[in-house]
Amino acid sequence: MMSRSVVHSLVVATRNRGKLAEIRELLSRLDVVVKALDDYPGAPEPEETGATFRENAVIKAVAAATFTGEVAVADDSGLVVEALSGAPGVMSARYGGSGASDQEKYEKLLAAMEGVPDADRTARFVCVVAVASPDGSVSSAEGAVEGSITRSPRGTGGFGYDPVFLIPELGMTFGELPPTIKNSMSHRARALTAAEPLILEALSQWNAHRR
Q: What is the CATH number of the domain that holds 22?
């Protein structure tokens, strides 16, 4: 267990403001100072060349830990749609082409699913969180949430595909849910909850190594 008298810094390897805000909120219960890549001028954003969410998360976390000299976390997440053979999947952030806005991405998704009946619009959000230390050690955890794709966007909250991802039991999209509710059940929340002991262990070991 980490001493509460020690200040621990943790780098979140993203420049996505929406994602950073979510992760900061989800990690607020931990005794850590959460920093962003923008706090480290020149920090790289490596190309996501992995074939899986885990591979991409590890690429980003390792690059951030190596550059900053701090324990880093990175997530890779995406939308897996059954009717599209798992697309957009690991390409979720780049779906619609380089520089596409969130709206352009989900509009492309809705166009690709035009004509797909409600019963076949099932989807899941998947998130893998990787935890990397500057010494090269890496661990990871995964979370997922099941839902379906709406026929039109609903709600202005969240980011990414949130306005078109419906939670059937709630009858609301992630874009309609208050942040506190979304953060209690999202794929990212589940992955970060599972990653908490990995984060604490990495911080404890790295800070012990530096003393």
A: 3.90.950.10
The SS3 assignment for 147 reads: strand
Q: In whole angstroms, what is the distance from residue 208 CA to residue 68 CA? A: 17
Active site residue 75: no
* 107 within domain boundaries: yes
Q: What is the DSSP string of 61-119?
A: HHHHHHHHSSEEEEEEEEEEEGGGTT-BGGGGGGTTSTT--HHHHHHHHHHHTTT--GG
Question: 72: which residues sit within 8 A by CB, 6+ positions away?
Answer: 10, 11, 12, 13, 61, 62, 64, 65, 131, 132
The tens digit of pLDDT for each residue in 68-116 reads 999 999 999 999 999 999 999 999 989 988 889 999 999 999 999 999 9
Domains in the chain: how many in total? 1
Structure-token pair, residue 206: 């790295």
Q: Which residues constitute the domain of residue 175?
A: 8-210
Q: Which of 76, 118, 120, 135 is catalytic?
A: 76
- Kind and range of the H or E element at 37? none
Spatial distance between the Cα atoms of 49 and 51, rounded to a whole number of angstroms: 7
C-alpha 65: how far from chain center: 17
**pTM of structure:** 0.88
- Give the C-alpha separation, 71 to 132, whole Å: 6
DSSP calls for 151-180: SS---S-SSTTGGGEEETTTTEETTTS-HH
Question: How far lies 137's CA from each of 53, 81, 155, in Å?
Answer: 18, 33, 40
